[in-house]
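Before relying on records like the one below, remember that each one covers exactly one chain. Contacts with other chains, cofactors or solvent are not represented anywhere in the record.
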Amino acid sequence: MPRGETLPGAPTEEERIVLHVDMDCFYASCERLREPTLRGEPVVVGMGYEAGEQTGAVATASYEARDHGVESAMGISSALDRLPRREENPNDPETAWYRPVDMDFYEAVSEQVREILTELADTLRVVSIDEAYLDVTERTAWEVAEGFGRHVKQRIAREVGVPASVGVAPNMSTAKIASDHDKPDGLVVVSPDEVADFLAPLPVGDIHGIGPVTADELTSMGIETAGDLAAADPAELRAKFGERGEEFHRRALGDDPRQVEPRGKPKSLSRESAFDGAVEDFDLVVERATGLAGAVAQRAKRRGALYRTIGVKVVTPPYDVNTRAKTLPGPVDEPDLVESVAHDLLEEFDGERIRKVGVRVANLSFSDRDQADLDSWDGGGEEEATATGGRDTEPKETDRYTNDQARLFEYDPDRTDED
């Protein structure tokens, strides 16, 4: 069936009612569930601040901590500079409570939320540990959709004890934008006849799927708002961004024909983080990449995925996207290897100004077969090199990514980071 078509008798896009449920600062909310005294206090969840640890990164920062400049994926040393540990400064209000990541606990809380959403949805698409889409077209009507969204929030709060932001809209991308619109603990309903007016004034970076780099590229073209993007020439957008350009244009118009369907297994997993402008401190870049590598490896482990390829992405001024990757002899689940390979691949960029860094694992395998024996691996796996932004590297033709493939490293049409 061609994309966008529906089966006879199925609801049209305007008739569909889609919810996006996003658990606010989920890891921090879980810690507050375990320790109620942390409510209202700055909370930072991460690794690397414990005695003897030298490196680490923030997994989640509560909104109170974000007010002090602490952000997800930030190096833990930078977070501690902004907000020292409360345990060491008990009378200083400019401090935060630090807690180590406890994925087993977070997964258990997430499963409780998932059970509620499964009960309430016609169809459920789980995107991550803290995020899901629900098609509730057969469960409610637009006249009472706000009440249904509030019911979802109240059940999660009452039965699980963590807050959620909910967006209600006729399609997935608008529902995602709506759930982000009034965080934390928000509820935003966008009915079919309100979609265009709701989207038009929003910054172009709010359109689902547009990251900071793409938003800056669009701004340089004079496209600053979703309304500007909706009014732009689709042919010009396609020439600049490929098929993604047309998709951005459709979403700015409020057009997203995707159905809410259970998600299949991913082809790759990645995390990335942008700096406040270009930085020359390579140690800072490595520290950030270390945290990202740990997050990616942890996500792969949660999904039961082995990986053969480990890669990095580096964005240099003005917006040159460079990706490098190494393919291993066989599939592995080795977090330390993800970190070490990422560090090795980043060495090429020592001394450059860097705007953004990312880490990716790919060539995923979900079989139960044993992973490769790393004791016999001498580091001689196939190395992939790409240059998508003005660098003169000449990799083998079969190993070269196109510019659009490099952008796919940062672009997931469904998912955002944990918080």
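The domain at 26-102 is CATH 3.40.1170.60 (MutS, DNA mismatch repair protein, domain I).
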